[in-house]
Design a protein that fits this description.
The protein is of the alpha/beta class and about 210 residues long. About 35% of the residues lie in helices and about 25% in strands. It is built from six helices and nine strands. It has a seven-stranded mixed sheet with strand order 3-2-1-4-5-6-7, with helices on both faces. A two-stranded antiparallel ribbon has the order 8-9. The structure holds 5-O-phosphono-beta-D-ribofuranosylamine. The site of 5-O-phosphono-beta-D-ribofuranosylamine has 14 residues, from helix 1, strand 5 and helix 6.
Length: about 210
């Protein structure tokens, strides 16, 4: 089995990155993490990646000023250097242009800490509590030019408790994130996900089938 080459793009602590790295330690996992790229030189996840023996690269967006295209050219050069097949955004806090996103259409995933299409953007846990949502969770989706949109590959839900705090809810959602991201990447790397009319079909069906 040839394993897909995956780049993980981060900006911060990298707990989802670690979950993907851990999953890919299994030689039977269909993807191999070949590089972790950060747009911030001080991202905590870089040390975690190095400790795990993964190549790291920094493409510091501040060096490109407002020139997003130049930043993305540098990013693309890094991805090509590492012969990347699939890109996983994991707490990557830069908006990407439509041109760049289109280069990776169907090959770039993102994790968002809410049950999309609810609560796009930031502060999702606080907003879920304020809205009185009873269910909250996380979503892995293909990236399209519009932020926090795109075909949904996997979701996981948690109940919102009446006395929840933003921190407590965030922690429970993060546990879900660490489970669904490796699952979603596995499905995509195995070529089992097809997008039809903006929706993901897994093995030709709208919901994932349990493993036989
Ligand atoms: C996660 O909550 C993820 O859903 C969001 O940013 C956060 C990143 O956390 N996109 P980490 O860096 O993976 O720990």
């Amino acid at each position: 089995m040839s394993r897909k080459h995956v780049a993980i793009l981060i900006s911060g602590r990298g707990s989802n990155m670690s979950a993907l790295i851990d999953a890919a330690k299994d030689k039977n996992y269909p993807a191999e993490i070949v590089v972790v790229v950060s747009n911030r030189p001080d991202a905590g996840g870089l040390d975690r990646a190095r400790d795990a023996g993964i190549a790291t690269e920094v493409v510091d967006h501040t060096r490109y000023g407002k020139d997003r295209a130049a930043f993305e050219r540098a990013l693309q050069a890094v991805l090509e250097k590492h012969r990347v097949d699939i890109v996983c955004l994991a707490g990557f806090m830069r908006l990407l242009t439509g041109d760049f996103v289109n280069l990776w259409q169907g090959r770039m995933l993102n994790i968002h800490p809410a049950l999309l299409p609810a609560f796009k953007g930031l502060d999702t846990h606080k907003r879920a509590i304020t809205a009185g949502a009873k269910l909250h969770g996380a979503t892995v989706h293909f990236v399209v030019p519009e932020m926090d949109t795109g075909p949904i590959i996997a979701q996981g839900a948690v109940a919102v408790r009446s006395d929840d705090t933003e921190e407590a809810l965030a922690k429970r959602v993060l546990d879900v994130e660490h489970r669904i991201y490796p699952l979603a990447l596995k499905l995509v790397a195995e070529g089992r996900v097809r997008v039809t009319d903006g929706r993901c079909l897994i093995d030709g069906s709208p919901v994932p089938q349990p493993e036989p």
